[in-house]
């Protein structure tokens, strides 16, 4: 029997060296069970009595006991309330830091630029937006590069998911490869809570363009050739104002536009402003040429000067516009565009009167005569159809037949001039061939008929269908046709490489010439009159 554990009654037993709690939990046949420990703290053996142990009947009762008879049916747990994704993940955004390299073309100082962006992944609808933070004086448009939307990942139609994103990977969005190098703490905690391994942050690369801009610039101080301070104090806020005009009407869709040219005396710079009018249909930009020094000849630079450089200095250009080069009536070359100065304001007149002793400031009248419509040029004749048909095809979208002179057709309907002629040829068999030439006054059409001759050996009949005959050696684009004034007895006409000598005419031709005696030679009319009076009409001319 041990002493009670009271202060002063504790004795150290050197044989006891274990003071842990004995194990009372274990598994049997795969089921967790508790067991009675036979030893206590320090390894002491418990005094187990029979009353502390359960009998076999008690074990059977416990095994066959049904808790529902004692406690009733178990109460089911309340179902978890459904929360949609747009509510559960509302305003929960993953933020990744990335960059991409932009190629710079036609530059002598840089090949590429590093542009940093932030990729926002919205968990509520798996949409992505790419935003470039605004950098002051960057010189490039910034802000939202890709608006919020679901972005395709491959050609199979799959979209980017937050499980596809990680630090150190390349994300291809619409042909641009973004390299992810870091993310914020919320993104890291969220992805780690979902069981993803987040790579370590990478360092952001350096932008060579930004480093060059931040590098200290060497400032060279040269002695001034004149007192700049005095010029600034005397010429500050003194501006010469000229009204000018740019006449571009020689080019297609060109017009005459009015501008205002400002010459700043303080630094010899020039500015050109556009005079806008209501509903003029132009973009609302006020400055046509920003304030800068204006060279007389922009192309007068050295051959080794880089063409991509837009700003030139005194080292490249030696001749600049000065006040002595300006004035009413003079022309100024503004980077390839010629401006005519036609008026100026009162201050400019006083300045030129005092400095250059100019007295005449009469403005130039820009009133121009009313422009006439340019007639379209017709293409050359291609040889298909008649030239009148070709002209009609060029004048309208839908081809129309050539217009006829109906008044002339009504006045000369049925009026035909008939002549007898012979063929002029170097071949013997063609020298004795006789023809009847009929000319229709209504439409200037010719018909040539060959009457039958005995033992001629040539088939008689129609030699030429009704058509118009061109004069030889005329312009094919503007042809001249034979008319009644060209059909004179004794004359030769050319009909498609054949020559015909007009030998006689019928009585109707004589009447036609007598009615219009002022249009025909009197000798021709008198010869026909005598011939018909003595011999009558020729037999060949009366046949039709």
TrEMBL record:
Its main location: cytoplasm. Pfam families: DM10_dom. It comes from the Eukaryota. InterPro entries: DM10_dom (IPR006602), EFHC1/EFHC2/EFHB (IPR040193). Keywords: Cell projection, Cytoplasm, Cytoskeleton, Repeat. GO terms for biological process: cilium-dependent cell motility; mitotic cytokinesis; mitotic spindle organization. GO terms for molecular function: alpha-tubulin binding. It is found in: Cytoplasm, Cytoskeleton, Cilium axoneme. The keyword Repeat applies. This is DM10 domain-containing protein. It comes from Oopsacas minuta.
């Amino acid at each position: 029997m041990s002493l009670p554990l009271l202060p002063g009654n504790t004795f150290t037993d050197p044989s006891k060296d274990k003071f842990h709690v004995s194990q009372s939990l274990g598994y049997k046949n795969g089921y967790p069970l508790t067991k009675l420990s036979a030893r206590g703290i320090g390894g002491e053996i418990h005094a187990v009595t029979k009353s502390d142990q359960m009998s076999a009947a008690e074990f059977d009762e416990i095994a066959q006991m049904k808790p529902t008879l004692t406690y009733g049916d178990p109460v089911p747990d309340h179902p978890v309330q459904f929360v949609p994704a747009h509510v559960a993940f509302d305003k929960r955004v993953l933020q990744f830091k990335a960059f991409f390299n932009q190629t710079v073309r036609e530059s002598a100082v840089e090949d590429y630029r590093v542009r940093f962006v932030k990729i926002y992944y919205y968990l509520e609808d798996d949409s992505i937006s790419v935003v470039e933070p605004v950098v002051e004086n960057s010189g490039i448009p910034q802000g939202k590069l890709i608006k919020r939307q679901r972005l395709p990942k491959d050609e199979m139609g799959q979209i980017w998911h937050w499980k596809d994103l990680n630090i150190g990977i390349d994300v291809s969005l619409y042909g641009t490869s973004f390299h992810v190098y870091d993310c914020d703490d919320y993104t890291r905690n969220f992805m780690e809570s979902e069981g993803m391994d987040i790579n370590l942050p990478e360092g952001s690369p350096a932008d060579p363009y930004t480093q060059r801009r931040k590098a200290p610039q060497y400032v060279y101080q040269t002695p001034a050739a004149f007192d700049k301070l005095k010029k600034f104090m005397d010429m500050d806020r003194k501006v010469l104002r000229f009204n000018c005009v740019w006449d571009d009407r020689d080019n297609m869709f060109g017009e005459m536009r009015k501008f205002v040219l400002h010459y700043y005396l303080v630094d010899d710079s020039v500015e050109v402003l556009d005079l806008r009018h209501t509903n003029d249909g132009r973009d609302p930009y006020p400055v046509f040429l920003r304030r800068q020094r204006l060279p007389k000849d922009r192309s007068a630079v050295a051959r080794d000067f880089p063409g991509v450089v837009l700003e030139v200095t005194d080292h490249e250009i030696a001749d600049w516009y000065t006040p002595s080069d300006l004035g009413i009536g003079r022309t100024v070359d503004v980077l390839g565009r010629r401006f005519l100065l036609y008026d100026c304001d009162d201050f400019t007149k006083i300045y030129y009167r005092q400095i250059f002793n100019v007295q005449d400031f009469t403005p130039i009248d820009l009133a121009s005569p009313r422009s006439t419509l340019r007639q379209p040029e017709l293409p050359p004749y291609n040889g298909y159809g008649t030239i009148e048909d070709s002209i009609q095809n060029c004048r309208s979208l839908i081809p129309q037949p050539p217009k006829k002179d109906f008044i002339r057709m009504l006045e000369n309907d049925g009026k035909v001039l008939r002549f007898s002629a012979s063929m002029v040829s170097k071949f013997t068999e063609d020298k004795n061939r006789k023809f009847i030439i009929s000319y229709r006054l209504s439409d200037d059409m010719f018909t040539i008929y060959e009457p039958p001759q005995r033992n001629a050996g040539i088939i008689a009949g129609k030699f030429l269908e009704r058509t118009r005959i061109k004069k030889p050696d005329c312009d094919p684009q503007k042809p001249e046709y034979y008319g009644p004034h060209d059909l004179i007895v004794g004359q030769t006409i050319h009909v498609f490489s054949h020559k015909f000598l007009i030998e006689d005419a019928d009585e109707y031709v004589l009447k036609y010439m007598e009615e219009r005696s002022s249009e025909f030679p009197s000798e021709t009319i008198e010869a026909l009159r005598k011939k018909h009076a003595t011999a009558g009409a020729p037999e060949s001319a009366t046949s039709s």
